[in-house]
Amino acid sequence: MTDITTSAPQAQKRKLNFHLLGPLFALIALIILGACLNSNFLSYGNVTNVLARSAFIGIIAVGMTFVITSGGIDLSVGSMAAFIAGVMILSMNSLIPIMGVGVPVIIMGMLIAAISGFAAGWLNGFLIAKVRIEAFIVTLGTMGIYRSLVTWLADGGTLSLSFDLRGIYRPVYYDGIFGISWPIIVFAAVAIIGEITMRHTRFGRHCSAIGANQQVAVYSAIKVNRVRIATYALLGVLVGLATIMYVPRLGSASGSTGVLWELEAIAAVIIGGTALKGGTGRVWGTVIGVLILSLIDNILNLASIVSPYLNGTIQGVIVILAVVLQREKKTAD
Amino acid sequence: MTSPVLEIQNVSRSFGPVQVLHNIDFALHAGQVHALIGENGAGKSTTMKILAGYLQPSAGQVLLDGMPVHFASSQVAEDAGVIMIHQEFNLAQQLSVAENIFLGREIKRGLLLDHTAMHDQSKALLERLNCPVDPRAKISEISVPNRQMVEIAKALGRKARVLIMDEPTAVLTSRETDILLEQIDRLREQGTAILYTSHKLDEIAHIADYVTVLRDGHQVFADIADGLSEDQMAETMVGRELSNLFPPLQTPQDETVLSVDNLSVDGWVENVSFTLKKGEVLGIAGLVGSGRTEMMEGVVGLRAATGRVAINNNPLKSNSVLAARQAGMVYLTEDRKEKGLLLQKNLRENLTLLALDKLSGVFINRLGEEQALDNAIAEFDIRAGDREMNAGNLSGGNQQKLLLAKTMLAEPDIVIIDEPTRGIDIGTKQQIYEFINQLAASGKSVIVISSEMSEVIGLSNRVIVMASGRVAGELTGKDINEGTIVRLAMGMTQNKATAA
Fold first, then answer.
1. The CATH number of the domain where B332 resides is what?
2. What is the distance in angstroms between the Cα of A11 and the nearest Cα belonging to chain B?
3. Looking at this predicted complex, what is its ipTM?
């Protein structure tokens, strides 16, 4: 009824604002808490460290936001990252005899990472959209496949990047410009482009339309399958990008690389206010979600009040709280 | 006259600063059917929700057996025997009929459920309603009118003294409606008080003992139904004369814009061929299930189809809604809630979804979107309280207008409208008829699929009648009449149907 609803949106807006900004308030509260507990918390070194470590999950979580917004899920990203890291290291090592030790090999490695990320993500999307298998099942399967492939490639051990290449590649993680390290810059760029894509492009609008009601999207002449595959391929490319930033940090990959990254990425998306069932997505919320998760870890390590081993417990509580807050909003409507 | 069971006295209701009900005052009596009618947004739903405990009145009171009551929730009202049956059924699809009837008040023997007792009692309740459904059948397996019966049985099982029915026939075919009306008659004889709403005034004239008319939240009429004609009801609702519901027909041009040859949709449609002229309104009639919707979904690429579809003699790429849209042909679904609109999204995002490419380069032109919304609100008379509101909060009629606006934003030349006025009030209907007529006048071509015979007859230059997935006949001029259409739809041949 027209007349009923004239008043409803006002009330809704007030509630929505609180709901919208909730994660931001939580982040600010965490920063204040951290600063009170340890004077080093806001130091340049600590802030840079926290942000650089958030970058891997952050880059992946931005891609995950698109997948979840369009009503999907991807459990395979952690394994995918390990697999891409393995492929990247093996190919760079084997390219040395041909191309010699130098920047071209690194660039080839980066290209290979991006391409294998795209291929792995596209495969997920293809199986989900075209073969019509549940996203949960497909990515549960590929999660096992990618993880086992990297373990097999490493023969159960560790794949290490050739020592000479490490020296050249190292700055990609450890250096930067104007005192900001490259992972932070790349994360920020991905977040900004992601936010703009989500809010101001047809692709973003189509993602949320598909997540809200796939039938309506089909009837509105949206190429649902193409958009859906694109979200997974985009996520795959971003996993590749995160791996490109991650490999120079340790210079190796093994079966235990990227374990539980998928859950951290999904948790960040949910904390940021994106609905798990799809339909609404907030990239900036995801960024805040990532920061909240890494700050908790950091604060526990800096302050000795609570054992750092309880990190997972606190993160778990926060994810559940975030979903409860989402639901309260719905019933209040 | 008996004393009233449930009464509403001087009830007003406001939402925030907006008053939606003004001093509503009427009574429901045992063994009477009381019809509550009005346009979408007139306040029917609010009134019903107050009676059934879903909403509280801002002023005034509700009386049960002459005593003031306060229904704090629908649960309290149900316990007092006042039960509302919603348009969207509250049935668990995967549970059996008996399990649904006893949902929340299962009969137990010791710790375990007493399936036999529930089965037998369900059977007895359904028999009382003359409904032949097996209590063991799942809800998802039974027909829509039977689900309605199960809802009623569930209400009766809860000892309903007052049944509040919110447009029970909106989704029923005319035959199913007849069955439902018979059951309502039976309930009336058994002494149940019934509040009944519907947009179909012939039903009201047929079933109601008493009629209350709401307009813009005011009670503008309340009297016994005897002697009240459908025209009088409609005019009271709208507050103006509705002499010409259908505008005069336009004359189509000679040019053929759409030709469909030997179209088949697996399991639904076999070898259908037809053409559409520029400026023509083509009506598609036929029973529900005759393949009307499936045929059109095949034509626009929403369903896999074989055969040839050509627009302005250019063959259309098959199975692509986008290709059809780009060629200037759009389809407006009959199911606006599930297939037409994103109910949780605002008006702007809904409006531009189909034609988003026209409003964006690399980025979406947000100002252009706002402009388009302004235009749509003005042109289609969309009555929204707030521009930012969700489409799901619009009334049915306004949702339909929004859907029309969304479709027209794609600037189509051929518009296929499936059930253009399902579940919307007569005033909005008239606006939509006017709009369809204007489309034809401006040289667009329109196909109207409708289960409402009067609509097909009143709007169309030409009518195709479907039966069992085939074209049973094509009618023009004087042959477009109810008798011929029904005979064709029932499977008679064209010669017999027009000769009879």
1. 3.40.50.300
2. 9
3. 0.80
